[in-house]
Specification:
heterodimer; A: about 180 residues; alpha/beta; Aconitase, domain 4; about 30% helix; B: about 425 residues; Aconitase, domain 3; 2 domains; 7-stranded mixed beta sheet; 4-stranded parallel beta sheet; about 20% strand
Chain lengths: ~180, ~425
């Protein structure tokens, strides 16, 4: 699992809900929607066409209560679009767990919206929490996870599925991964 | 040092005598929902840790509006048979999971439950720590346990005398307005106070339900005779109510006196963007749709008050009102009590129990520029359909009154 990310910034405001990331009428109502197609619906209400502009390695920064609302996995489309890391002022519990389980590093970084403008580049070390605007040199500290804690273990394994599959094997509940 | 309700429940389920906020613990979990059964099968795991403690229903696409959804539900039926899940509820015997599962004995005081859907916080009305588990419900299905971060606890004291024209919905909208929708972020909220105690179970249930709308991990009430009465016909296993110790530590305490509370309305696009219904009425906001449904406010009391408001009256021209009871059981009670007849006579479209309209799925999706007043829980942009629609959240009485006048209306004149 990569622990240092460097990328172009996309900036969002407060209260970016999971309804915006996974719109009900366009995604949830379509039970077997293709993940790539679902990803293109991400933020269609508040920033139509944003999804098409994201490039692999980009970093999303946002304000308070990121991922509020539904338990739909907003990190899934973000990761599918290529977002490599997410830095926010604060994040909802449900969304944070989904992010860790999806293997998309999502960190609380107080003051993040003041660190960089959209289009600038930042670098984040998810273990130390150090966040740097590589253009201006300005720095902040994000909250990272206790080494050995469950979220740390899950993220370092690459997400919940690799973590869980290994636990199943250790417990003898499966002999090989059939997915 | 004393512990809060969340600390006691997490400690007990982790086999520890005490835990502190910020700690990570692995806990035995008492129940979950079966939404991850398809993934469990794909991984090659052929049994769940305890089939009796898994509950499953299709409520979001109920009944299925498309062939792919229908095939999806057929898969669920196959899986519940394969995994011997007896707590599966077919259409016509089901409902919305947060109403249906407790009706069928899933939740008891002192329990720790992590299940699908964000409105899992509803279960806190039963003095149980109930919260969301999405993908990681897989871990519970396989092992009967899950990791948790011990949350800080926040106390919300609701005192005073709740006026007869207000219900739990008005209280939680006022709390969200006053404290913001992230005051409870990652916290366990404990509701106490004389007004909280006086509220009916259904009124507290709305407040617990919208716990997630203020960021909460748990939204807890005490176990009193109202809770015990509910449980007496539905839960036969032993349970132990949990109260906080007198010297428990809270991150913060907030006081509300609801004596002067007015019916409240949350304006687009945020549940915390609440003002009084009187203010909304003065603004002359015309509506296209009124929705009385969802796990938030579609219980017997909610349908009864809507029927009281609408008896002998009609839904305004140009307006449609959809009514969807929270479960089949509520639907049958409302039918027998005559409330559904009153609502149908008033020109309401009385639907079965479903999540559909609340999340913009089906059975009442909003088009461009439409305005809806809803008894549900969220009004984020695009929530109930078009991103160009406007959703207002309110109590059942306010929804019903607005359907009659055709614009957002303070229900008090209809409640005499």
């Amino acid at each position: 699992m990569e622990t240092v990310y460097s990328g172009r910034v996309w900036k969002f405001g407060d209260k970016i809900s999971t309804d915006l990331m996974v719109p009900g009428s366009y995604v949830l109502a379509r039970r077997n929607i293709d993940p790539a197609e679902a990803a293109l619906q991400c933020m269609r209400a508040n920033r139509p066409d944003w999804a098409r502009q994201v490039r692999p390695g980009d970093i999303l920064i946002a304000g308070r209560n990121f991922g509020c609302g539904s338990s739909r996995n907003g990190s899934e489309p973000l990761k599918a679009l290529g977002i490599a890391a997410v830095l926010v002022e604060s994040v909802s519990r449900i969304h944070l767990r989904n992010a860790i389980n999806t293997g998309l590093p999502t960190l609380v970084c107080p003051g993040i919206l003041g660190l960089a403008d959209e289009g600038q580049r930042i670098e984040v070390d998810i273990l130390s929490g150090k966040v740097v605007n590589t253009g201006t040199g300005a720095e902040l500290r994000a909250d990272s996870w206790e080494p050995g804690s469950p979220p740390y273990q899950i993220l370092m394994a690459g997400g919940f599925m690799p973590f869980f599959t290994e636990k199943l094997r250790s417990a003898g509940l499966i002999t090989n991964a059939s997915e | 040092m004393g512990m809060t309700i969340a600390e006691k429940v997490l400690a007990g389920h982790a086999g520890r005598s005490a835990v502190r906020p910020g700690e990570y613990v692995w806990c035995r979990v008492d129940a979950t929902s079966g939404h991850m059964l398809p993934a469990l099968e794909r991984l090659g795991v052929d049994r769940v840790w305890d089939p009796e403690r898994v509950y499953m229903v299709e409520d979001h696409l109920a009944p299925p509006p498309t062939v792919e959804a229908a095939n999806g539900v057929a898969e669920v039926r196959r899986l519940v048979r394969k995994y011997a899940i007896t707590n599966f509820f077919e259409f016509g015997r089901g409902g919305i999971l947060h109403q249906l599962f407790p009706e069928n004995g899933m939740i008891a005081p002192g329990e720790l439950i992590a299940m699908g859907d964000s409105h899992s916080t509803s279960g806190g009305v039963f003095n149980a720590c109930v919260t969301n588990s999405a993908m990681d419900a897989l871990y519970i299905l396989a092992f009967g346990e899950l990791w948790f971060r011990v949350p800080e606890s926040v106390k919300v004291v609701v005192d005073g005398q709740l006026p007869s024209w207000c219900v739990g919905k008005d209280v939680i909208l006022e709390i969200a307005r006053a404290l913001g929708t992230d005051f409870g972020l990652y916290k366990s909220i404990e509701y106490t106070g004389s007004a909280a105690a006086q509220m009916t179970l259904a009124q507290r249930w709305t407040i617990a339900n919208m716990g997630v709308e203020v960021g909460a991990k748990f939204a807890l009430f005490e176990c009193d005779e109202k809770v015990e009465e509910w449980l007496s016909t539905r839960v036969s296993r032993p349970y132990a109510p949990v109260s906080a110790d007198a010297d428990a530590q809270y991150e913060s305490t907030h006081h509300f006196d609801v004596t002067g509370l007015e019916p409240m309305v949350a304006f687009p696009h945020d549940p915390g963007n609440a003002r009084s219904a009187r203010t909304a009425q003065e603004a002359g906001i015309r509506i296209d749709q009124a929705f009385l449904g969802s796990c938030t406010n579609a219980r017997q009391e909610d349908l009864e008050v809507a029927a009281r408001v609408m008896r002998g009256r009609q839904v305004a021209p140009g307006v449609r009102m959809l009514v969807s009871p929270a479960s089949q059981e509520v639907y049958r009670d409302a039918l027998k009590a005559g409330w559904l007849e009153v609502l149908a006579d008033a020109g309401c479209l009385v639907e079965h129990s479903t999540c559909g309209p609340c999340f913009g799925g089906h059975l009442g999706v909003l088009g461009d520029n439409e305005v809806c007043i809803s008894s549900s829980n969220r009004n984020f942009q695009g929530r109930m359909g078009s991103a160009k629609a406007q959703v207002y959240l309110a109590s059942p009485a306010t929804v019903a009154a607005s359907a009659i006048t055709g614009q957002i209306t303070d229900p008090r004149e209809f409640l005499t």
